[in-house]
Write a structure and sequence with these properties.
The chain has 149 residues and is α/β, with parallel strands linked by helices. The chain contains 5 helices and 5 strands; from the N terminus they run βααβαβαββα.
């Protein structure tokens, strides 16, 4: 019997295209391409298809979330700064009702106080933060475990 491959949408928000060159004291040297390569390796092991998007535009992120209904089994999202401001992204995730894990490279709960609040997590099955690129890998494993159980 063939096991169904999961389809996961990986969404990266604003400024994550600058990883590797921005605020290295917080985000390190890892680039978004490095993270995607690591996720692809893990996805092969877990029998998962991945689709990646990165946008600095809130509307584009929302459009991709809305288009994901009946197309993806799960969403892995790093909403970046939209974490703390976007009720619209939260509402889009709630509307599509797709299991979603929010991830962050840094620990948002130990940074500036305004970063402690996430609107997005209210529409997610969980949040993983503070483990650098491993936050993404842990998030993908969590989604796989949650969806496949």
């Amino acid at each position: 019997m063939e096991v169904k491959r999961l389809n996961i949408l990986v969404i990266n928000g604003p400024n994550l295209n600058l990883l590797g060159s921005r605020e290295k004291n917080i985000y390190g040297d890892v680039t978004l391409a490095d993270i995607e390569k690591e996720l692809i390796k893990l996805a092969v092991e877990l029998n998962i298809n991945l689709t990646f998007i990165q946008s600095n535009n809130e509307g584009t992120i929302i459009d991709n979330i809305q288009a994901s209904k009946n197309k993806y089994d799960g969403i892995l999202i790093n909403p970046a700064a939209y974490t703390h401001t976007s009720i619209a992204i939260m509402d889009a995730l709630s509307a599509v009702q797709i299991p979603t894990v929010e991830v962050h490279l840094s620990n948002i709960h130990t940074r500036e106080e305004f970063r402690h609040n996430s609107f997005i997590v209210r529409s997610c099955i969980g949040q993983i933060c503070g483990f650098g690129k491993n936050s993404y890998l842990l998030g993908l494993r969590a989604l796989d475990n949650y969806i496949s159980r």
